[in-house]
Amino acid sequence: MTDQTAPPHPQPRRRADRSVRVASVPSGHVYVRHCGDERVADGVVRLADPRPNGAPSTSERWWPPVMLDPAWVDGHHTEFDVFHLHFGFDAQGPAALADLVAALRRHGKPLVYTVHDLRNPHQVDPAPHRAALDVLVPAADRLITLTPGAAQEIARHWSRTATVLPHPHVVEQPRLSRPRPSRDGFRVGLHAKSVRPNMAVLPVVRVLAETLADLPDADLVVNVHHEVGDPGAHAHAPDVLDELRALEARGLLHLHVHDYFDDDALWDYLSGLDLSVLPYSFGTHSGWLEACHDLGTAVAAPTCGFYAQQRPCLSYGNSVEDGLDEESLRAAVLDAYRRRPAWRASAGDRAVERARIAAAHREIYDGLLR
Length: 370
What we know:
Helix 3 (94-106) runs parallel beside helix 4 and helix 6 (201-212) crosses helix 10 (326-339). The protein is α/β, with parallel strands linked by helices. It contains eleven helices and 14 strands. The chain is globular and about 65 Å long. Helices cover 34% and strands 16% of the residues.
């Protein structure tokens, strides 16, 4: 399919020192950081995330992204060569995004957009995100996405060609190379986090609890954040917490209610699982799946989105359109129990992959600046 390119705009000037300065939205997120090659100087300099209003000076918070304000582009356009959008535009409507595109055009700045989400996992209604994509995808000078399936969707809906680049590793060294802890039994984990809108927590947990109850040396661990039980929190979901507690009282699962894990605690948690079940009913790609691949934890992922195209995993039927296929979830768990798949990235392969991803980004930026 022929790529319909964005409208022409003034050509940016190439800098004499050959470095490329990228205004990346965001810059500090682990995905974006790992799109650069830490082993060599790839010549790509990503601007630090401007601190949002109200964020303390010690905060690493990047949202809401200041760079999405056209006034920021007007005031800082001499400081970057390429604008690269990843995510963080949930609060921007189509008009605001069109104003951002217009500001970039005004100053001759190319726009690269990595399409991480074809459907926003934080929004029940798909319409706002689709409206945002209807602005960004046609306007971008280059598009990137993570899987062939997502690229096919982009071509089908917008007649645009997206370069497919894999998700880089999430876990850092030396943890990436550390052997998995030895343990007996078979542990399945479902992390409900703060019960995102795309999570079908209770239907999935019921099937897992019933299936594992019949398996020797198998147990189910369910984690959830404290705010799910906080009446003042946006994530308050007392029905979810009540049923999870009832299942725990029946001895069908172990429930852990806690604050957000830091990286070390999260890697410890994932390394202690034989199978991590993603309870999503809609979505596109998953950094969680990538972390499991780094640590050697098998994943059961739903058939919605393109999770199975990211890394080796087990699949089960689940989508907002068709609901949960209980039999396929049960079959995925039993398959993991019998086979104990040991899919894990090698540190060497991840380093080579990261270098390739970094080189591909640099090539895209150079192509736009030539």
